[in-house]
From TrEMBL:
InterPro entries: TPR-like_helical_dom_sf. Residues 954-1012 are annotated as: Disordered. Residues 965-985 have a biased composition (Basic and acidic residues). It comes from Streptomyces griseorubiginosus. This is Tetratricopeptide repeat protein. It comes from the Bacteria. The lineage of its organism: Bacteria, Bacillati, Actinomycetota, Actinomycetes, Kitasatosporales.
Amino acid sequence: MSGFDGAAAFDGEAAFDALRRAMAENSEEPEGPARNARAEQLLAEAEKLNIPLAVIEALGHQLKVYNYSSEKAKMFVPFARLLRMWDERPEDFDEYETHSLHWVFKWMTAGMLDQPHIPLAAMEKWLGEMEHRYRLAGHSERAVRSAEYSVAAHIGDRARAERAYAAWLAADRDAMADCHACELHEQGWWQVRQGRDAEALDLWAPVLEGEFTCAHEPHAALASSLAPLLRLGRLEEARANHLRGFRLVRSMESMRGAYADHVEFCALSGNEARGLELLAERPAYFTDDGHPRSRLDFMAVVALLMDRLVELGPADRPVPGPSGRSWTAAELAAHAREEALALAARFDERNGTSHVGERARARMAQRPLVDRLPLGVRAVRTVAAPPPAPPAPVLAQEPDLPALIAEARRLSDTLQPNAVEAWAAVARAAQDVELDPRDRAEIADHEAMDRGPEGTGLFEQAAELYAQAGDPGEALAAHARAAYVRALAGEIDEALTAVAGPYDEVLALYAADGTGVRQTASVVMSRARILMRQVQEAGEGGEGEILSEAERAVREVLALVEGRTEDDVRLAARVAEAQAMLAELAARTGDVESAAELFTWAAVGFVEAGLPWFAVEYEARLAGLLHHLGDLAGTERALRAALEHGGPHLEPVGRAQLRLQLAEVVGGRGLAEEAAEHALEAAHWADEAGEGRTLGAWARHQLGGYLVRLGRWAEAAEVLESALPDLRPETHGDGVVVQTQWWLGDCLSELGEHREAAERRLQAAEIARHWPEQHDHATLAHLAAESLGAAGLPAEADRAYARAGGLWREIGNVHGLIRSLRARAWLALRAEDGADAARELMAQAVQECEAALGDVGSDEEARARLVGELGHTHRQFGDLLARSVSEDAEDDSIRAVLEEALTQVAESIVLFASLGGDALDARTGAELAAGWLAADLSRPEEAAARARAVLAAYGSDGSPSGDDTTGRDRRDADGGTEPTRRDAGDATAQARRAEAAQMLALMEEQMEEQQD
């Protein structure tokens, strides 16, 4: 910040210049009280200068920072003073300040609307004053009608608002009209008020797409678009606009209303936890009272969010709220509602209508528009409390016990997923009823299944009851199931001993027609499962005898069941499961092709049996094997089938894993859009499964990468920033951490956040510094240097480039070394008296490149790259020399430097020409640069020749001529691409031809003048 303090050693114009610099610096500071206080200080200093324009500019600066802050109510005092100064001495205002004074009339109108203590009559009087002054100044009435519309819309006078709206759009745009972005935002907002969401979004499209922007746009339009997009079901756009828009408004204190829209979006899209995070980021928004209307908006959506949290329960959960005390959701809901309604009542009392209160109540009464819209950023799912059971209707009849038993038996006979729950319902209904042994056996059997390894005792109880019911085969099956759950608990030997008896007995019983195939298959399958557990416990490969015994047991199941399944779902499932077991055994012996084929049969068997959910596990295994075999199409089919067949029965963690695998496969095919959708779903389901810090972080890392690939920088930055705190080298690998930082640095660079980009790139470089291979370290150091330079930190950038250059030299990457030297040269040129250092660094780049060319040997491709590198270096050397010329230098000195610059550029032309079509654009660009230098040196004939050379290079229609029709894209010295021209419609060819034609015309005109 400037050290200007008014008591400076400067006076007069020098002091005024220092004041202006200080105001410009203060304008760049973050919005907020500190900036406002500095503006007040600068006004006091301006008053000491005895220069009216200094006071006018300081008042304008103060007014501006007040407007872009939470202290908007302070605007009226400096504006009133400015208006008085204008009325008394308009000649003290220069052209810019005259424009500014009239411009901020609009701010005053909006400011009055936002302050309920200002009477409506005063606003109407102000509208008349504004119209009168605009007419005197010769301005269109467009801004006046826009202001009138705002007043009418605010108080709910729809008829007047419609008239003013139409007059606003009909009036001519002039210098006083709001920018296109602001006008379109307000017009769209009116459409939303009329229930025309789609029309609003059409109006906002140029703003949302970045065609029209300003200090507060597209920030505000992105926020306003969220609820309409949700209502229209355009959920992906809503998600993207939230991530993009929140990033823009997060640090802008003056945008509390837009911030409230983002909180509202969270409440309406099932992202209540993220809504709480947003509230926690801005505690001052609860109490800042300089802008009552945005405080009303904010407190209304706080009430909406808190009501939602109370509904989800528990009501006493702690939430962020106004400082000074702790808050529960229920307490904050009541407080926010009371504050919002009190503010609305003040506005309505001022306006003489009930419009503001009605809108506030409607906003607080909204219901969620979607259950949950995954955002990709991590947030804990807010779990809904179970709804209270409704009272039973008087005439309603509960299903009787026989019906419950029949339904449970149907579900278990067909292996439906909810069979266990159905038998639990039977157990509850039969608490006071004496059931026969068969029914009690099935209840115990299914409860044991539900308990897993703790169900051994219940299985044994079920076995006794089956025996009492006269079903010895099912009794033996229950004993076998008890043995299997012991194996699940790790007691393999005990399980094998326990299953031996039932196995022998059931085979003997089956041979004597004492039981059926189903019961016998159940026992034989349980024994096979135990042996498969033994294989798994034996580790990779297993022992030969163990594998052989397991395979014999599995084949025994197939021998027993195949051909006898008929319509028996259970038996069909035994065949499919046995195929899957054989697949597992084949995979363990390294027979991947057979394993894949067997898993395919198993999955098909389950699907054909009407049990697709059982196929999911095997389709997932199949996908892994096919990926190993390089069959990516088959991998993708298997993963899609698993997701389809799992349907609602998939556990969240399984769904996350399948989605993430599918994202990687389709992403590998270049389908980044679809890959991003799958990674987004994976992140959502990982969070649902409580795996947000592990699997969820990996999914967010992947999602961020796909968004980077799509160029969706703001969304990617939000996702990657959300992933970083959970990414750990020991869990995810330090390569993932570095890649995430790298991608994030790229995003921040694209978003213009260069200092933050440098920080991320340096953090990644510090990790990569410890890797054996140093290319990534060098690249990250180089990128960090670029960001530091763009952030206006030349000294830090030079050090980073020097570090990168040293690394490039160490790993033998001459191209990186030369790029770093060239970058340092340009940085040096920006410094005071840095021309000599810049020249030295560029000369060093030339020397390094020439030395590398001498050592390249017979590698023609490497030689061509180095020739191109040298060409770019000579070209940049010429540009640097030309820009180093001081306007204050003697003519002869200037001419000498330009001659030297032309020599460098001419050398680059020769080098590019030697590469033929590969360097066509580079050559023609250098030709044009040389032509302009020749023109500056008063040599129009030479400049004209250069222009003709460019026109000839592209042909009469813009297409390459001669040898330039061949070639390929090549990467230039600074990491970009320098493509050759292959079609007449190419933009570069057209631009070069247009510039060459312009140059030729100018030079021919000069030559004619010389002849005359």
